[in-house]
Amino acid sequence: MKTNTSAFKYICIFLCLILVFVSYSINRKRNQIKELKNLSLQNIEISNIADGTYTGYANTTFLKVKLELIVQNGTLQNVKILMNEGSVGQNVASITETMVKENKIIVSPIPDEEIASVVFMAAATNALSSQNEK
């Protein structure tokens, strides 16, 4: 009879640990989404931006991004990732290629990297939003 009681205790402890982990994960995701609401996103028309190289930052508690955007003749020529540090966003670099290909900074997020994608788009917005229009 003692073995059943001992097994029951271990099962209860295991289930409690799973519950704590799930609660932590949900709370972390909720906090990340709250931070995203504070980021600035603007669909800036690249053709209105003067030729030049622009640098933008987006910092959150979970991801810090610094991008360099090169605009020439009304088109986005290149987006370089100068910094990508954090607990998410390590598989989102291809979003910069999409920005160049589509010639815009607000693009479809990378699947399973939606939160990091928004941070990258915010960094691009910050780079181009500072009175750089022609």
What level of helicity do the residues show?
Answer: 40-55%
Question: Taking Cα atoms only, what radius of gyration do you get, to the nearest Å?
Answer: 21 Å
Largest beta sheet: strand ordering: 1-2-3
Structural class of the secondary structure composition? alpha+beta
Percent strand equals 15-25%
First and last CA, distance: 82 Å
Number of strands: 3
DSSP helical segment count: 3
Unreliable segments (pLDDT under 50, ≥5 consecutive)? none
**Overall body shape:** elongated
Average predicted confidence as pLDDT: 85
Largest sheet: 3 strands, antiparallel
Order of helices and strands: HEEEHH
Give a written overview of the molecule.
The chain is 44% helix and 22% strand. The protein is an alpha+beta fold. It has a 3-stranded antiparallel beta sheet with strand order 1-2-3. It starts with a helix and ends in a 6-residue tail after the last helix. The mean pLDDT is 85.
Please supply descriptive tags for the structure shown above.
134 residues, alpha+beta
